[in-house]
Design a protein that fits this description.
- The chain is mainly alpha-helical.
- The protein has two domains: 142 residues, no CATH class; 74 residues, no CATH class.
- Helix content is 68%, strand content 3%.
- The chain has eight helices and two strands, in the order H-H-H-E-E-H-H-H-H-H.
- Strands 1-2 form a two-stranded antiparallel sheet.
- A hairpin with a 2-residue loop joins strand 1 and strand 2.
- The longest helix has 32 residues.
Length: 263
Amino acid sequence: MQLTFPHRRTWLHRVNPVVKLGLFSLWFFAIILIHNFNVMANVAAGSVFLLLWSGHPWRRLLLYSSPFLLVFISSATGMMFFGSGETPWFSWGIVHITEESYYRGLHLGFRALSMAAVGLLFGLTTRPVDLFYALMQKAKLPPKYAYSFLAAMRMIPILAEEFQTLRHALKIRGMRKQGRLKTLYRTWHRYAIPLLAQSIRRAHRIAVAMEAKRFAGQARRTYYYVIGFSYRDIVFGAVTAALFGLSFALGTQWPYVGIADVR
């Protein structure tokens, strides 16, 4: 079962996953501390701009970003329609839009959009295998946890294929979906028990194999993939710092609106 799509590898794919994880975590904390509307708008634009180096076509990026655009709209409108302020713009029933609530809602929407764009960029440019190997080698994550996560991720397509096989088998035997609650419970029971039993047996075999290979011990291990540092990590850190510095400079020197603090 295919869970990934063909894409072009860029320099962001070759940045050390630990470096990306650390810088993106600092990115999240920095976004939370930004209360200047102009700076937040620039940071959100820079976050979306970084998606150009994800290696995926723009149509696929729009498809991936559609839930985040919905979060942006819902977050912004929720704060706009029901916020408080001293300069009223529109009022109708429980809807009360003010100048302060309008910019506060946009600020909240830009914050959510920036976080979503950074998280999407990390997911599109980081292979799970590289991430866990880097965590084991650079962040000293115990191998038993890292390989357990990798094994669980490998099980997802296997479970999906087993679900499809079971679904086809039940359909051949003449068991179809019906609208009654009791029938729905029986259908769920027919799916859940075999899948759960297969998962327990497979998890037990993997646990025995990992214990036989002494993954629970403290012995020094060798790795098939060696994830190291390179000049791309420095370039990525410089790009991140430059993006924030440029956003703050443009937001403070050439503001779009005269609101420096939306709180």
